[in-house]
């Protein structure tokens, strides 16, 4: 087998995010800002901006909204040869109100019966999806429909057969499925992956891992047998456990404009480091990119490789 065409491939849903300007309420809104968003697409677009060869596989309707989403990915440099274009159907949407204390951010989904829910395994270009140094998947996709769950399971099975390393982000969405159902479906899926991403909250509510950050990371490591476990800790930054030592990277200070997309930015940074053979440095990239995500509007972070490297050199790494 020759060298893979892509550094990272991924499969998932892209939605349109419609947000009201900060300080306004949706029910009285007179204008909306439009941004395409989707966990897997966010990772693929950011890595493409970091000079990686990425390919997003998913489905888009042949209408102006589908083309808008494609244009954003294309302008970032993402390969779209794996996209399944539909004559009809719809792109899922979600609406965002930014809340200042005492209110939190409010998200209203309108994604039921979007095109991805009806996609079948035989529609996927498996050769394109597997032509990669790393396959990135999330726990959002198997929650969308029975066929999406089957495609995710098939992608994991095929990747293992073809010896394509996998990164998997738990990314639990309580509006899509219950904690018990998510645990039952996701636990077999994360076995033996190369990189597992999980928030501190999801580690507790789905998998019962609690305690100090290192205990949580070790708990997820033992449950999943992943080679690298990354636990995101909100305002405490993130921790990487590789089975030998723990690395903690504190948050980079930032002014929060938009909370969405920070977890995907962190995942992209870790993957960037892993592709370079230095996952620990990737953790530093990750917290830097998460800070950039928080400081920009939209889920897809706009940056460059040189900016990321420059900004990531300003924070100390702590090894325990």
Question: Mind explaining what this structure looks like?
Answer:
With 320 residues, the protein is α/β, with parallel strands linked by helices. It has ten helices and 15 strands. The strands form three sheets. Strands 4-1-9-10-11-12-13-14-15 form a nine-stranded mixed beta sheet, sandwiched between helices. A four-stranded mixed beta sheet has the order 3-2-7-8. Strands 5-6 form a two-stranded parallel sheet. The radius of gyration is 18 Å and the shape is globular. The model has no long low-confidence stretch (mean pLDDT 93).
| CATH superfamily grouping | Ribokinase
Outline the low-pLDDT stretches: none
Order of helices and strands: EEEHEEHEEEHEHEHEHHEEEHHHE
Indicate the multimeric state.
Answer: single chain
Number of helices: 10
List the main descriptive attributes of the protein structure presented here.
UDP-N-acetylmuramoyl-L-alanine:D-glutamate ligase, alpha/beta, 10 helices, 320 residues, globular, 35% helix
């Amino acid at each position: 087998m020759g060298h893979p065409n892509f550094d990272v491939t991924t499969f998932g849903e892209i939605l349109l995010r419609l947000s009201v300007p900060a300080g306004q309420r949706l029910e009285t809104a007179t204008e909306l800002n439009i941004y395409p968003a989707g966990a897997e697409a966010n990772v693929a677009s950011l890595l493409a901006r970091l000079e990686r060869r990425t390919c997003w596989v998913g489905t888009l309707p042949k209408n102006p909204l589908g083309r808008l989403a494609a244009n954003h990915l294309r302008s970032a440099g993402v390969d779209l040869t794996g996209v399944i274009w539909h004559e009809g159907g719809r792109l899922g949407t979600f609406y965002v109100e930014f809340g200042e204390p005492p209110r939190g951010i409010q998200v209203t989904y309108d994604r039921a019966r979007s095109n991805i829910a009806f996609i079948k395994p035989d529609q996927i270009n498996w050769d394109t999806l597997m032509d990669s140094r790393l396959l990135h998947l999330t726990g959002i996709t198997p929650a969308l429909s029975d066929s999406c769950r089957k495609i995710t399971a098939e992608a994991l099975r095929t990747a293992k057969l073809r010896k394509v390393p996998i990164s998997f982000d738990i990314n639990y969405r309580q509006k899509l499925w219950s904690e018990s159902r998510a645990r039952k479906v996701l636990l077999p899926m994360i076995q033996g992956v190369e990189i597992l991403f999980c928030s501190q909250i999801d580690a507790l509510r789905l998998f019962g891992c609690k305690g100090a950050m290192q205990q949580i990371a070790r708990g997820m490591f033992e449950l999943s047998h992943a080679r690298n476990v990354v636990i995101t800790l909100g305002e405490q930054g993130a921790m990487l456990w590789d089975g030998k030592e723990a690395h903690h990277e504190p948050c980079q200070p930032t002014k929060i404009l938009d909370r969405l997309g920070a977890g995907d930015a962190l995942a992209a940074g870790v993957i960037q480091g892993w592709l370079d053979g230095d996952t620990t440095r990737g953790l530093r990239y990750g917290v830097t990119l998460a800070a950039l995500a928080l400081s920009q509007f939209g889920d897809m972070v706009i940056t460059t490789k040189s900016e990321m490297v420059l900004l990531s050199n300003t924070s100390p790494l702590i090894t325990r």
